[in-house]
Amino acid sequence: MTQTQTQPVPPSPSGPERLLEVRDLHVEFRTREGVAKAVNGVSLDVAEGETLAVLGESGSGKSVTAQAVMGILDTPPGRVTGGRILFEGRDLLALREEERRSVRGARMAMIFQDALSALNPVLSVGYQLGEMFRVHRGSSRKEARERAVELMERVRIPAARTRVDDYPHQFSGGMRQRIMIAMALALEPRLIIADEPTTALDVTVQAQVMELLADLQREFRMGLILITHDLGVVADVADEIVVMYAGRVVESAPVRELYRAPAHPYTKGLLDSIPRLDQKGQQLDAVKGLPPSLLRIPPGCGFHPRCPVARPLCHADEPPLYEVGRGRASACHFWEELLDAE
Amino acid sequence: MGRYVVRRLLQMVPVFAGTTFLIFVMVYAVGDPVNAMFGERAPDPATAAQLRAEFNLDKPVWQQYLLYMADIFTGDFGNAFNGQPVTQLMSTAFPVTLRLALIAIVIEIIFGIALGVVTGLRRGRPVDSSVLMMTLIVISVPTFVTGTLVQYVLGVKWGWIAPAVSPAAPVGELLLPGVVLALLSLAYVTRLTRASISENSRADYVRTALAKGLPRSRVTVRHLLRNSLIPVVTFLGTDVGNLMAGALVTERIFNIQGVGFQLWQGIVRQNSPTVVGFVTILVIVFLLANLIVDLLYAVLDPRIRYA
């Protein structure tokens, strides 16, 4: 049973050590209407201290990918049907549930979108924070409470010692999200997956929370996967970007380069849909149409029904991820035209 | 919290007065208790008048009620028509019914919640369907059928238990009647828990608990069950009152001399002081059970605060 030996991933020749390597991940949901293909061959890498932004609309498979990496898919109906998830040199999909559980929360942690519903309403925040130490470290109740106070201080919650026994609903939205972050940081994991961590917050609070997250990431040199649909947030904090559409990666690139010259019409559409102050009063170029149903992903390129540059080839041939530059890839047959146009 | 309890207790006063007055009027207005004492024979008018005067039956109903209430607050529930103090009947009947109700409640809590959790987590699977089917059967078959059936098969045919419970009603003899009494509510507790668990199992905080790397058992008990118990506790609270009063059928079948048994006899024999006395106590039990349920809410859900 212990022959789950996986080759340690050789460190890449340049740069920091690879932390997470997702290869050709497939996830399906069996529903009454049919099989929904939520993730179709996603590959991504995160290095230590690196921030990877995963960008996409609702239903693009970004959250499902995150849940598959964490191992918290709703199973059934969800199921990983293929691929590998290498984390710190181990294939997570080959681990037994008990080993997998010891990784969750301790080596990789997750921050959820809406802290009000993601925190348990009937348990005090001190209890919920302390639970990490009690379960993973076997700490005593008293010790766990002490560590909970320290954590709350670390995420800059005022009067932490007097508030440790309060319940989630007694905190403001921003403070609640800080508690979520504190919970994820509790055991100093190597990787944090933040699923739209600031979507539910006011704009001013968003900035504070993002700043805190970025600070803590630098301090602990963690890998960070930031799932978002907010291009503004991405530009500030991310190193690399992966754009997802209909369960596939359609473009991946270093942030600066992607903003300068997108190599996929979908990415270009997303960038054009950001309102700009210097173009006030003009029609906003939104991406027309709706993302496809995951039960019936169109043949060929999944994006072709909405694509402004689609040609007959796109209806028939699914584009592979073309290497379009150093550390850049695009799943568009006509990426060269796009890059040349810029 | 303290002020809330005081306010709730004060609110109970009109409710208590209203319900007891209704019962009082109904019991004394329907039929003539003095005639009832004499059964088939017509009473001698002089004796009847004397008895009426002794039991205050010659006064207007509202005066009778006030006199009765005044007595109750001194602990005097009056005498049954055979001269036995009602309090004496109570002191033998209530402990028996209390034991029976406790057995039933414990069975409901342990089996109802356990079955509810198991089925709620496996919605649509064979375990779920079969338990659901069983609860349906239990709900649709009346207690007197299940009770008599159990008594006949286990008591008479196989002789595993005594078909009738002895007057002392020790816990051992009350176990099976307790199961019979619990069955209906057990089915409801199972269904309530199942619905609540199944609804909450998709909640975000459950996903968070899993992402924290907590063991399944801890996620289920500490996070999921804790949140799912609120509707179940409400039901159990009101059920305490029902079990105390509604053991009538079960007590009759197994010849248990508890509250239901005494109430039934009181009604059949038009023994008004017994009926009113017992019902008064049951009203208090109901009111207190409801207060305790409301206070338990705040314990289970910190978002509820009483001021």
Automatic annotation (TrEMBL), chain A:
Q: Does the keyword Coiled coil apply?
A: no
The record, for CDD domains, names:
ABC_NikE_OppD_transporters
Tell me where the signal peptide lies: none
Q: Which family does it belong to?
A: Belongs to the ABC transporter superfamily.
Primary location class: membrane
Protein name (Swiss-Prot/TrEMBL): ABC transporter ATP-binding protein
**Origin superkingdom:** Bacteria
Concerning NCBIfam families, the annotation shows:
oligo_HPY (TIGR01727)
Domain ABC transporter stretches: 22-271
List locations, semicolon-separated.
Cell membrane
Question: What is the species listed in this Swiss-Prot or TrEMBL entry?
Answer: Streptomyces daqingensis
Stored SMART domains = AAA (SM00382)
Source lineage: Bacteria, Bacillati, Actinomycetota, Actinomycetes, Kitasatosporales
Keywords, comma-separated and alphabetical: ATP-binding, Cell membrane, Membrane, Nucleotide-binding, Transport
One Pfam family from the record: oligo_HPY
- Extract the InterPro entries matched here: AAA+_ATPase, ABC_Ni/Peptide_Import, ABC_transporter-like_ATP-bd, ABC_transporter-like_CS, Oligopep_ABC_C, P-loop_NTPase
Named from the GO MF annotations, one term is: ATP binding
Q: Give the PANTHER family listed for this entry.
A: DIPEPTIDE TRANSPORT ATP-BINDING PROTEIN DPPD, OLIGOPEPTIDE TRANSPORT ATP-BINDING PROTEIN APPD
Topology relative to the membrane: Peripheral membrane protein
From TrEMBL, chain B:
Q: Where is each ABC transmembrane type-1 domain found? A: 94-297
In terms of Gene3D superfamilies, this protein maps to: MetI-like
| Residues that span the membrane, as ranges | 12-31, 98-119, 131-154, 174-192, 275-300
Known InterPro entries for this protein?
Answer: BPD_transp_1_N, MetI-like, MetI-like_sf
The keyword Transmembrane belongs to this UniProt entry's keyword annotation:
yes
Topology of the protein relative to the lipid bilayer: Multi-pass membrane protein
The record's subcellular locations are: Cell membrane
Question: Pfam families recorded for this chain?
Answer: BPD_transp_1, BPD_transp_1_N
Question: What name does the UniProt record give this protein?
Answer: ABC transporter permease
Q: Which family does the UniProt entry place this protein in?
A: Belongs to the binding-protein-dependent transport system permease family.
| SUPFAM superfamilies registered for this protein in UniProt | MetI-like
The UniProt keyword set, sorted, is:
Cell membrane, Membrane, Transmembrane, Transmembrane helix, Transport
